Amino acid sequence: MTSPFKTPEEAGEFLASLGLLDKHRKVEGKEREQLVMLFKMMEPFESSNNQHSWTDTYHVGDRVYNVHYWPGAEEADIEEHIPYKDSK
Q1: Per the domain annotation, does 41 fall within a domain?
Q2: Beta bridge partner(s), residue 80
Q3: For the segment 52-62, what is each residue's pLDDT rounded down to a tens digit?
């Protein structure tokens, strides 16, 4: 089977366009506490439910945070979504 991409760079650009090279950082400690307080004063930018968990997305300045709620969990998981940036 041949690749539809002529170069590794083209393949990388395609993966980046799909968001597959983005990273996520789990928010913990004092930063998490502060974000929980902030989110209580905000409306989520977006909410979704996949029948196993619920996710609220918040935009704070140029940062994007996803808050994941799991059935039976004591507290929600908060992660920062970090978009891929090409280092060219």
Answers
A1: yes
A2: 25, 65
A3: 899 999 999 99
Ranges of H-type helices in 1-88: 8-17, 29-40
Q: What is the pLDDT of residues 14-66, one digit of tens each?
A: 877 787 778 899 999 999 999 999 999 999 999 999 888 999 999 999 999 99
Question: Rounded to whole angstroms, how far apart are CA atoms 74 and 19?
Answer: 30
3-state secondary structure of 29: helix
| Mode of pairing for the β-strands spanning 23-26 and 63-69 | unpaired
Number of independent structural domains in the chain: 1
Alpha-carbon span 61 to 48, nearest angstrom: 21
Q: Are 47 and 66 spatial neighbours (Cβ–Cβ below 8 Å)? A: no
- Domain contains 51: yes
* Both tokens assigned to 4: 């539809």
pTM: 0.77
Q: Which domain holds residue 42?
A: 22-82
Give the integer Cα–Cα distance in Å for 44 and 66.
9
